[in-house]
Design goal:
Protein name: SDR family oxidoreductase
Strand order of the largest sheet: 3-2-1-4-5-6-7
Radius of gyration: 18 Å
Organism: Limobrevibacterium gyesilva
Family: Belongs to the short-chain dehydrogenases/reductases (SDR) family.
Low-confidence stretches: none
Largest sheet: 7 strands, parallel
Structural class: alpha/beta
Pfam families: adh_short_C2
Number of helices: 8
Helix content: 40-55%
Length: 260
């Protein structure tokens, strides 16, 4: 299927590895010019070189922390008028809410709720003027099925989802869509980090814990990031303009619900 994305411009946040990288690669394969951000310049440049080699698309890099005002300003200076915005940021650490003070909570809210909102604010009016825009927020399956040890992620990402639910309906008439991609367990560094605590408690290795998670899934495996990237491309396609304010769970069937 021709997605109608060739020649479009995309800003993909936290894209040096993991799910952000998968989205950037998927879009570049469709002929999209991508600007990717990440905090570690060396990793970011290596990813950019790989995407260029695999796709031939133009890739611009912006090293910096997208959760800061300076990081967002640098990203928007490099890609001021994106047709596509993929919001992504590393999730807050797991733990017990009794151990989290106000500053810890504010860092989580800044990263996983306010940063996407500020980036949407910066680009949505340009999308409206051009009559095309696709905004995809990478959140978490915990938005629909909370994970007890990820309380900060549950809260901050649910706040973003609630805000977007209203805004998406306001801009849809301009062919601007805002939707969420909610990953379950994908084989990324983030999965290894969140599994480390369980491994320490159980005496098993991280790999053994991930294998146990795979067995508990109806799909009997964890996700391949390339699958996630393809889902992002689908939501960004020209033909997806009637998908508005939705939250697509990619978790191999772990979330058990008749109505989604």
């Amino acid at each position: 299927m021709d997605t109608g994305l060739k020649g479009k411009r995309a800003l993909v946040c936290a894209a040096s590895k993991g799910l952000g990288r998968a989205c950037a690669l998927g879009l570049a394969q469709e002929g999209v010019e991508v600007t990717i951000t990440a905090r570690t310049a060396e990793t970011l440049e290596a990813t950019a070189a790989e995407i260029r080699s695999l796709t031939g698309s133009k890739v611009t890099t912006v090293a910096g922390d997208i959760t800061t005002e300076a990081g967002r300003a640098a990203a928007l200076a490099a890609c001021p008028d994106p047709d596509i915005l993929v919001n992504n940021a590393g999730g807050p650490p797991p733990g017990d809410f009794r151990d989290w003070d106000r500053d810890t909570w504010l860092r989580a809210i800044d990263a996983n709720m306010l940063t996407p909102i500020f980036l949407i604010k910066a680009v949505v009016d340009g999308m409206i003027a051009r009559k095309f825009g696709r905004i995809v927020n990478i959140t978490s399956a915990s938005v629909k099925s909370p994970i007890p040890t990820l309380g900060m992620s549950n809260g901050a990402r649910a706040g973003l989802t609630g805000f977007v639910a209203g805004l998406a309906r306001q801009v849809a008439r301009h062919n601007v869509t805002i939707n969420g991609l909610l990953p379950g367990p994908f084989l990324t560094d983030r999965l290894k980090t969140t599994t480390a605590g369980l491994a320490a408690q159980s005496g098993r290795t991280i790999e053994e814990e991930i294998a146990l998670r795979a067995v508990s899934s109806p799909a009997r495996r964890v996700g391949d990031p390339a699958e996630f990237g393809a889902a992002c491309v689908f939501l960004c396609a020209a033909q997806s303009g009637f998908i508005v304010g939705q939250n697509l769970v990619l978790d191999g069937g772990l979330f058990n619900s008749t109505m989604g």
